[in-house]
Structures are given as C-alpha cells and as structure tokens.
C-alpha cells in the first residue's frame, strides 16, 4: 500500500502556483512525492518557482479568466505531465474597498477569477478523473467564507461561493472516486495578506487579538493541510471545509 500521506504518482495542477499559498501548496506536494504543474499569468514568476522544485515541476503560463481556453490548458498540461489527478483552484485577486466604492466591474473581476475560472477548469478536468475513478479537487476558500469581514464584499461573495460548489460537486462526483474539498486559510503571511493589511495597523491588531495562537500562519501550514486532504489518509473525506487559521474561526 502507498504510505497514507504520500502523493507519489499524483500530478497536481495548481493555479496561482508561483507565489504565496499556491507556492506553499506546491512545495509540500513535491515533498510528498507529487509532480506539479504551476499555472499563472507571469512566466518569469512561474519559472523562478519551478527552479526550486527541479524536475518535479512544469509550468504553464496561462490566464485562467480566458474561460474558452480551459480545455486547451488541461490538454497541454496532460500531454506534458500525464493525467492530472489533483486540481487546486487557488488563483485569486483581492480588492479592498467599502461596498459603496465597489463597482460592478470590480465585483465581476473577482467573480471571474475566483468562481468562473475555477468552475471552468474543474469541469474540464472532471471527465478524466471520473473515467479513471480517481481524483481530488481542492478549493482555497477563506475566513471570508465563514464570517463577515468589512471592505471585501466581492472577495467574500466569491470565496463563499466556493463552499456551495464544493458541497454540490462532492455529492455528484464522489461516487466516482473523485473527492472535492476546501481549505479556509486564516491570515497567512503572504503578498495578498500584506496588500489586505497595508496601512491598517488596527486591523492587524484585531486579527491577532482574535487568533488564539496569536500569530500569522505560513504558506506551508496551508500546504501540509492540502497534502493531507489529497492523500490516501483522507480517503473518506469529501465535501469538507478545513480551516487552517490558528483558531481564528473559533476565537473571540
């Protein structure tokens, strides 16, 4: 039997895989024995990340908001890396504005990157996973999926939509050997968190005050949780949302 926490013989396509949480997930996947296909818009960023992983990583520069090209991306990746057995829907953008300053264009841009693109890629990869009766689809949700956070109405709507997608997809495809889960990271030390907290020391203080562990997380904290959910150790887990948050979702 394969060791319960091993990802040997798995190939993971990770959107937003060149930086932040995506890079942390890719790093842990590689250490667990997987090959990774890093997807993002900036080729130079992907190349730098891939050099860290050596032969275990391939890159596919691609804008996932070009929904009509999702099938082509999946086919290119499969030709180069073999069947994709894990999809990590991680790519995202962040807009921090009060609701009255958030435009329709702002809202749509967030939904297109997080929700529409993730759905399009998931739909493109599911037939192969179902045919092989093996696969994992993982969504990177957020604390904004679980409780109200001011000035991120579009981001919160998108990340909350992930939870509905996870539950519905799990009920449809789990009988075919495909598990669907989500992570809900808390405040993780990354460029996106820096953008969210930039110039807002009171918000930083408030976050730490309600986080029982009294610190920010690291990308690899999310990476190892992702590794678990995609490993044989989690074979009976589907439709779940796992907070990786230092206790923030239960803190007061």
What is the topological layout?
Elements (H helix, E strand, L loop, with lengths): L10 E5 L4 H12 L3 E6 L2 H11 L3 E5 L8 H12 L4 E4 L14 H29 L2 E6 L12 H21 L4 E8 L5 H7 L3 H9 L9 H11 L11 E4 L8
Parallel strand pairs: 1-2, 1-4, 2-3, 4-5, 5-6, 6-7
Helix pairs in contact: 1-8, 4-5
Overall description:
- With 252 residues, the protein is of the alpha/beta class.
- It has one domain: Rossmann fold (3-Layer(aba) Sandwich), CATH 3.40.50.720.
- Helices cover 44% and strands 15% of the residues.
- The chain has a seven-stranded parallel β-sheet with strand order 3-2-1-4-5-6-7, with helices on both faces.
- α4 links the parallel β4 and β5.
Quick synopsis:
With 252 residues, the protein is α/β, with parallel strands linked by helices. The protein has eight helices and seven strands. A seven-stranded parallel sheet has the order 3-2-1-4-5-6-7, sandwiched between helices.
Give structural attributes.
alpha/beta, 252 residues, seven-stranded parallel sheet, 8 helices, Rossmann fold, 44% helix
Parts with pLDDT < 50 across at least 5 consecutive residues: none
Main pleated-sheet profile: 7 strands, parallel
Helix/strand order, N-terminal first? EHEHEHEHEHEHHHE
Level-1 CATH class name: Alpha Beta
The DSSP helix count reads 8
CATH architecture name: 3-Layer(aba) Sandwich
Task: Give the end-to-end Cα distance, rounded to a whole number of Å.
Answer: 43 Å
What spatial order of strands do you see in the largest sheet?
A: 3-2-1-4-5-6-7
CATH topology: Rossmann fold
SS strand fraction? 15-25%
Mean pLDDT across all amino acids: 95
CATH fourth-tier homologous superfamily: NAD(P)-binding Rossmann-like Domain
């Amino acid at each position: 039997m394969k060791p319960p926490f091993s990802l040997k013989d798995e190939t993971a396509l990770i959107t937003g895989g060149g930086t932040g949480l995506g890079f942390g997930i890719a790093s842990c996947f590689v250490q667990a024995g997987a090959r990774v296909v890093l997807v993002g818009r900036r080729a130079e960023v992907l190349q730098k990340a891939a050099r860290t992983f050596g032969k275990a990583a391939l890159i596919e520069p691609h804008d996932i908001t070009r929904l009509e090209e999702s099938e082509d991306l999946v086919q290119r990746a499969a030709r180069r890396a073999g069947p994709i057995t894990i999809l990590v829907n991680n790519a995202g953008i962040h807009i921090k504005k009060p609701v009255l300053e958030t435009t329709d264009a702002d809202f749509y841009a967030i939904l297109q990157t997080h929700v529409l693109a993730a759905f399009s890629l998931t739909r493109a990869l599911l037939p192969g996973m179902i045919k092989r009766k093996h696969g994992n689809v993982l969504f990177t949700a957020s604390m904004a999926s679980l409780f109200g956070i001011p000035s991120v109405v579009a981001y919160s709507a998108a990340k909350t939509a992930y939870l509905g997608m996870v539950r519905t997809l799990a009920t449809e495809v789990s009988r075919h050997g495909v598990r669907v889960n989500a992570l809900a990271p808390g405040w993780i030390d990354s460029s996106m968190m820096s953008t969210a907290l930039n110039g807002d020391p009171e918000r930083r203080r408030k976050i730490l005050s309600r986080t029982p562990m009294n610190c920010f997380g690291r990308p690899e904290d999310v990476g190892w949780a992702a590794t678990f959910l995609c490993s044989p150790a989690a074979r009976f887990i589907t439709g779940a949302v796992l907070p990786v948050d230092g206790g923030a979702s239960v803190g007061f």
